[in-house]
Structure formats: structure tokens, C-alpha cells
Specification:
- The protein is of the alpha/beta class.
- The chain has one domain: Glycosidases (TIM Barrel, Alpha-Beta Barrel).
- About 35% of the residues lie in helices and about 15% in strands.
- It contains 12 helices and 11 strands.
- Strands 1-2-3-4-5-6-7-8 form an 8-stranded parallel barrel.
- Helix 10 runs parallel beside helix 11.
- It is globular.
- The N terminus is likely disordered.
- It binds beta-D-mannopyranose (BMA).
- Its main location: secreted.
- It catalyses: Random hydrolysis of (1->4)-beta-D-mannosidic linkages in mannans, galactomannans and glucomannans.
- GO terms for molecular function: mannan endo-1,4-beta-mannosidase activity.
- It is an enzyme of class 3 (hydrolase).
């Protein structure tokens, strides 16, 4: 009996020590965000909008304004923010938004319970003028869209002629990301989607401008830098572009690897009303492949960019976009920014507004109030 008692107490002590030892380490911001995205995916598809809180078609830089909110009464669940220009130490982004304002609006959206996604279209480090803005350069000279030099990626990698310059650029990005904290110093979690649309060749990191190995090395270089800087609050999104007859092989041909990616996305647009059927068919076919591959690789699928330019088919939201995506378990669909020359989100004065509201009212679309 005594022996049994000693054994039992001993076993209990071992178990309790083991309990302490195995105590779950605190989850990182990235893990928590991923879990949240997965849970929300069961509820519906989040709607997202690029640059939403900065400007709309009839206003700019008013506190708490949003074309989406002005149309349907709620903020988008997801807001997209663009950091192009931060690499130069510029005060404003390539879309003329002050970086201090970007920090503030990211914090605001986080505080109101929203999801943040960040893109970065860094300038071309080989052709950009050192030290200056783009003044004097003619678009696309010096920008992310400048593909006149076909070996930029190779040149910024370790051992390349522009590696040191690019290290400075990555450091400036890192310094900006470090500002994304709550007032009590907590790192804000977000989705980061660098080097996107790499299945096309319009950015200096595009398909015809680097080999598969160079592309992956570019991805790894940036990711390793930010991880070394302590960013455990980043959900990494890899997103090539939508393509006709997408296959799993094609989707993954430059994929950095399961240990390096959390979200798998696609970017796809409709430009003119005549493309409706083709857009719907392609989106459905692409999302089918995207969701299957994501499931197999434990990734979160999303339509990371989409839109119909200037909504020239006003019913687009309810007649085209929603029917093309709603049967797929994607996390979100994000329409691009409302720039005066080119807009992809709704706006109160435009004929598409009631159709946006129709989409908003559906149970399977999620806006800010639905995800809090
Ligand atoms: C493009 C356009 C550009 C913009 C860029 C980065 O699609 O909207 O005007 O500068 O994205 O946001």
C-alpha cells in the first residue's frame, strides 16, 4: 500500500512537472491571426478594400471616412495598405499617402477589430535615381513596373551589385513595420504579400525577369530579414495572378514552400463589361484549383486582389463577383483602391452603389461588424 502511495505521488509529481514543462508557449501574433482567418472562413467571405480610409471618389483625408462605409454603413472587414516608397525613405507612398497616416490607419483598423493586409511595390533598385523621388523620371522609369533591366532580382541577391542598396531598402521597410504597434506596445498582426503577380512579367520580380531559384531567393532574403528582426506577427501571403486554365503545377511553380507561406492568393480583374463570362469562368476555375492546393498544403486561400475597373457594369457586385466566388471557402476578396482615374471599390454617387449594398446584405459576405 505504501509502495503504491509513493508511486502514485511520484507519478503525480512527474506529471505536474511535465505539465509545467509542456506549458504551451504563448502564440505569436501570426498564429493568432491565422486561426482567426480560418475561423472566419467558416462564416463567409470577407470583403476588403485597398487604401479605404485615406480617400474616396469625392473626399480625401477625413477622419473615419470610407467609401465602403459611406455606401453600406460598415467598414470593410479587410483593409489593404501599400508601402511602395518606404524603401526610399520617402514621406509619402507611391500613391501619395503619408506614411505616418498609414501607420495611424493600420492601428485604427486593428483597434476596431479589422484585418490588415500590406502590399509593397518597391521601386526598381537598378534604374531608380538614388536619393530622390521620381521627379524627372518618366513612368514607369525607376518604378516597380520598370522592366528595362531584366536581371534586377539577380543583382539584389547576396553577391549582386545592388545587394547593399537593397539591404538598406529592406531595413527601411523593417523600420516602418516596427511602427505598427498598439499604444501598449503590442505588435499588430497583419498579412504581408510581397513579390505578388509574379506569374506575369510587369514587375521587376516577374516571371520572365528572374529564374525560379532567383525568385525564391528574393522571397527568402526578405522573409529571413524580417524574421531576424523579430516580426513574428506576419502572415505571409504568396499570390501569383489569375490565369486561363490554371493548374496546381502552374500555381506552385515559384511557390517558396510550406515552411515559408501561410496564405495562398490570386489576383484577378475584369476590365470591361464584355469580359463578364470569361471573368466568371476563369475566377471559378482558378479558385477551385486555389482552394484544393491550399487544403493540401495547409494554407489559407484568398482572392488577394480583384475588381472591375470603374464599375462600368454597375450590377457587377451581385451579378458577377459574388456568384463567381461564393461557392469557395476563401478568406477574403479585396478590391483595389478608389483612385480618381481608376477605381475598384463602391462610392455613394455611383450607379453600382445599390448593387454593392445587395452584396453587403448577403449572409455569406463579411464586413467589419460581422467579424468582431
Ligand atoms: C496599381 C495602380 C497604381 C498604384 C499601384 C500601387 O494597381 O492602382 O495607381 O500606384 O497599384 O498601389
Amino acid at each position: 500500500m505504501k509502495k503504491l502511495f509513493v508511486l502514485t505521488v511520484g507519478a503525480m509529481m512527474i506529471a505536474s512537472c511535465a505539465g509545467i514543462k509542456n506549458a504551451e508557449p504563448e502564440k505569436t501574433g501570426a498564429q493568432l491571426l491565422k486561426e482567426r482567418l480560418d475561423t472566419l472562413r467558416e462564416k463567409g467571405i470577407m470583403y476588403g478594400h485597398q487604401d479605404d480610409p485615406f480617400y474616396g471618389l469625392t473626399w480625401a483625408y477625413q477622419n473615419d471616412s470610407s467609401d465602403v462605409k459611406n455606401v453600406c454603413g460598415d467598414y470593410p472587414a479587410v483593409m489593404g495598405f501599400e508601402l511602395g516608397g518606404i524603401e526610399m525613405g520617402d514621406e509619402k507612398s507611391l500613391d501619395s499617402v503619408p506614411f505616418t497616416r498609414i501607420t495611424q490607419e493600420i492601428i485604427n483598423h486593428y483597434n476596431r477589430g479589422g484585418i490588415i493586409t500590406i502590399s509593397w511595390h518597391p521601386r526598381n533598385p537598378v534604374t531608380t535615381i538614388d536619393g530622390g523621388g521620381l521627379a524627372g523620371q518618366k513612368f514607369p522609369e525607376g518604378t516597380a513596373w520598370d522592366v528595362t533591366d531584366s536581371a534586377v532580382v539577380k543583382k539584389v541577391l547576396d553577391g549582386g551589385e545592388y545587394h547593399d542598396k537593397f539591404e538598406t531598402w529592406m531595413q527601411r521597410l523593417s523600420d516602418f513595420l516596427a511602427t505598427l504597434k498598439t499604444s501598449d506596445g503590442k505588435k499588430i498582426p497583419y498579412i504581408f504579400r510581397p513579390w505578388h503577380e509574379n506569374s506575369g512579367s510587369w514587375f521587376w520580380w516577374g516571371e520572365k525577369l528572374c529564374t525560379v531559384e532567383e525568385y525564391k531567393a528574393l522571397w527568402n532574403m526578405l522573409q529571413d530579414k524580417l524574421k531576424a528582426d523579430g516580426f513574428d506577427n506576419i502572415v505571409w501571403a504568396y499570390s501569383p495572378g489569375c490565369q486561363d486554365n490554371l493548374t496546381a503545377e502552374r500555381l506552385l511553380d515559384r511557390y517558396p514552400g510550406d515552411d515559408r507561406v501561410d496564405m495562398l492568393g490570386l489576383d484577378g480583374y475584369q476590365w470591361v463589361p464584355e469580359e463578364k463570362d470569361a471573368f466568371m469562368a476563369r475566377t471559378k476555375q482558378n479558385l477551385e484549383v486555389l482552394c484544393k492546393v491550399s487544403e493540401e498544403h495547409g494554407l489559407i486561400p484568398a482572392l488577394t486582389e480583384c475588381g472591375m475597373k470603374n464599375l462600368t457594369e454597375p450590377t457587377w457586385w451581385s451579378s458577377t463577383l459574388l456568384p463567381a466566388v461564393e461557392q469557395f471557402p476563401i478568406s477574403y476578396m479585396l478590391t483595389w483602391r478608389n483612385a480618381p482615374h481608376e477605381w475598384f471599390g463602391p462610392s455613394p454617387a455611383k450607379p453600382d452603389a445599390p448593387y454593392f449594398v445587395e452584396m453587403y446584405k448577403k449572409n455569406n459576405t463579411l464586413f467589419l461588424k460581422d467579424i468582431k
